[in-house]
Specification:
With about 650 residues, the protein is an alpha+beta fold. The protein is built from 25 helices and 21 strands. The chain has a five-stranded mixed β-sheet, with helices on both faces. Strands 19-18-20-21 form a four-stranded mixed β-sheet, with helices on both faces. The radius of gyration is 25 Å and the shape is globular.
Length: about 650
């Protein structure tokens, strides 16, 4: 048996390199081997931080008897869904169509051409063994029905690929979306719907941009005080298994924390107060401390498990608190953090239902507990760098850095951008992943181009370094040239990407903004800075599906709704011109970035003549009487320039 996963850049694939299963990575070699042996493909899709993926691996893929069945009757393919979201998307669509549910690990039986004919998710070992035997029996005894089933599935899926489009969203569209969100809003605990509850980052961004403080504030405070938030180390878990945000599914993902860092920063700008600031900065600190790679990028995730037990790293008993803190502080901490057996086996996930009155004592207790926790066996880290999620991190860190006057966060955003530019970009195209500074082979998908462009535009707005804006423009040109569906929308893969049985296209948000809505946001901002109607028109066309989702499914169009709100607002454009060394320039620049204005774009420049201004928003706009100046504009139509922070604040409040 060959070990074909040893050279993978995916930690998830490397976890399976020592299995007795004869795994192939996704690729033509596996398809050719299935055709040569005349056996089906068994495609197993998961990711490193997936708890049930680990369970199925331990039960079945590490079991010699089960592996023997797999090797004898199938060509086995292991896929990291985070490296190949396109492969994951098409087979998840098939799985949901066949079973009315989905999840990971995803288990797909397919013909040697890759056409799925039987799909599922996690199977316990006895069930899985019976399934392997039955699939082999049907493949060898009733091949025609299997092939017909695969062809039927593919035909049905390919007939239902077009997503309906509506009119360009208007103010009434967004009002209906707010009403739809209110229908499923939990007024007691925040969030939408019941258990399980996922952080609704994109919907919260829309609500904040819409001035809806009740739903957004309740949700943001409840999450920050619940067990889904790491009260010692900062950062959010993937989701809560209950409706009260108490017990999380403990994996911690870069994308969640990048999105939430940005949302909490925006909440602070909208009046979220000390809680918003604290959670934003603690989350940023966690990202830098626990996810930053030596190359300057950000790793993908931390596992839910340590020592084979979910959540073991994070939970506490009253006895453990007293052991670390002593009897007095231990009892105080148990009451403060609600350590009353909220998890399993008498352990609790720490919560913070209310702020402590004694902040000095709280800081000391928290520090001692965090130091004690550091001595525990840590969860595993998936240290591959995903372009899309690093783009989200760049935007969040750059904005938080300037808002909270933390230049180290801006430096971290810049280092991540340098890594993406140097390692992930080749011949104007993006590669999705890297590890240890070595790029993976997988092409970037739409969300990579869109989220990296979004991050670079934000980084330009904070630093004034024009190379980031130029790179964002190049990426967006590739989006328009390579991903367009010809009707205003975008496919999730480029026109020259590997051909799967279906070209994936999904405009709805999932754990991250949909590629289409992320592209719309970046196109809108880039158009606002450059004055190019091409980009603004493309953004408007990409938002046509928002109107279809707004009335009944607004939760799945949160980012599109947020972008539509920015488009309806202008968006507001601010040119800040003056010497970067002049503290008056810095003050105006920060004031512009502090504005609570939907989709605001900022163009910093030195105001010196010479050469063609880039971006065009800076053209013809210079200092006033030798003093740095700010110009507040919409559609390149600008108000009179101002030279003081107070004047700019008034202009932006009236914008």
């Amino acid at each position: 048996m060959m070990n074909r996963l040893n050279d993978a850049t995916s930690p998830y694939l490397l976890q399976h390199a020592g299995n007795p299963v004869d795994w192939h990575p996704w690729g033509e070699e596996a398809f050719a081997e299935a055709r040569r042996r005349d056996v089906p493909l068994l495609i197993s899709v998961g990711y490193s931080a997936c708890h049930w993926c680990h369970v199925m691996a331990h039960e079945s893929f590490e079991d010699a008897e089960t592996a023997a069945l797999m090797n004898e009757h199938f060509v086995n393919v292991k896929v990291d869904r985070e490296e190949r979201p396109d492969v994951d998307a098409v087979y998840m669509t098939a799985t949901q169509a066949m079973t009315q549910q989905g999840g990971w690990p995803m288990t797909v039986f397919a013909t040697p051409d890759g056409h799925p004919f039987y799909c599922g998710t996690y199977f316990p070992r006895p069930h899985f063994r019976r399934l392997l035997t039955e699939i082999h029996r049907v493949w060898t005894g009733d091949r025609e029905s299997v092939l017909a089933q695969g062809a039927k599935v593919v035909e049905a899926l390919n007939q239902n690929t077009a997503f309906p489009r509506g009119a360009t969203p208007e103010a009434e569209t967004l009002e209906r979306a707010v009403a739809n969100l209110r229908e499923s809003f939990d007024p007691v605990n925040g969030g939408f719907g019941g258990a399980p509850k996922f952080p609704p980052s994109m919907a919260l961004e829309f609500l904040l941009r819409s001035g809806e403080r009740e739903m957004s504030g309740r949700t943001l405070e409840s999450m920050a005080r619940g067990g889904i938030y790491d009260q010692l180390g900062g950062g959010f878990a993937r989701y809560s298994v209950d409706a009260e945000w108490v017990v999380p599914h403990f994996e911690k993902m870069l994308y969640d924390n990048a999105l939430l860092l940005r949302v909490y920063t925006h909440w602070w700008k909208a009046g979220g107060g000390d809680l918003a600031r604290r959670v934003a900065l603690e989350t940023a600190g966690w990202m830098l401390r626990e996810l930053r790679t030596p190359e300057g990028g950000f790793a993908s995730a931390l596992d839910a498990d340590s020592e084979g037990v979910e959540g073991k790293f994070y939970v506490w008993t009253p006895e453990e608190l007293r052991e670390v803190l002593g009897d007095d502080d231990g009892r105080w901490a148990a009451a403060l953090f609600d350590v009353t057996g909220t998890f399993e086996h008498g352990t609790s996930v720490l919560q913070l239902p209310r702020d402590p009155e004694d902040h000095v004592r709280y800081a000391g207790v928290r520090g001692r507990l965090l130091a004690a926790r550091e001595r525990r066996v840590r969860p595993g880290r998936d240290d591959k760098v995903v372009a899309s999620w690093n783009g989200l991190a760049i935007a969040a860190l750059a904005e938080a850095g300037v808002v909270f006057e933390r230049p180290d966060l801006v430096e971290a955003a810049t280092a991540a951008a340098e890594l993406l530019e140097g390692v992930h970009t080749a011949d104007g195209r993006l590669l999705r992943t890297s590890r240890d500074g070595r790029a993976g082979a997988n092409a970037g998908v739409l969300e990579d181009y869109a989220n990296v462009a979004e991050g670079l535009i934000s980084l330009y707005g904070v630093t004034g370094v024009t190379k980031w804006l130029r790179l964002a423009g190049a990426l967006l040109d590739t989006v328009l040239d390579r991903f367009s569906d010809g009707s205003g929308g975008f496919y999730d893969t480029a026109d020259d990407a590997e051909r799967l049985f279906q070209r994936p296209q999904d405009p709805t948000d999932n754990a991250t903004p949909s590629g289409q809505y992320a592209a719309a946001g970046a196109l809108l901002s880039y158009g606002a800075l450059t004055g190019s109607a091409k980009y603004r028109d493309a953004a408007a066309a990409a938002l046509a599906t928002v109107s279809v989702l707004a009335d009944r499914h607004a939760r799945f169009a949160g980012w599109g709704l947020a972008v539509a709100r920015a488009a309806l607002d202008g968006p507001v454009e601010v040119a800040v011109v003056g010497s970067p060394a002049d503290p008056r320039t810095a003050a105006l620049h920060r004031e512009a970035l502090l504005a609570d204005v939907p989709g605001l774009v900022v163009a910093p420049g030195d105001g010196e003549a010479g050469g063609e201004p880039f971006p065009a928003l800076l053209e013809g706009r210079g200092p006033i009487g030798g003093a740095p100046a700010a110009y507040v504009c919409r559609g390149f139509a600008c108000r009179l320039p101002v030279t003081t922070v107070e004047e700019l604040r008034a202009e932006l409040a009236d914008a």
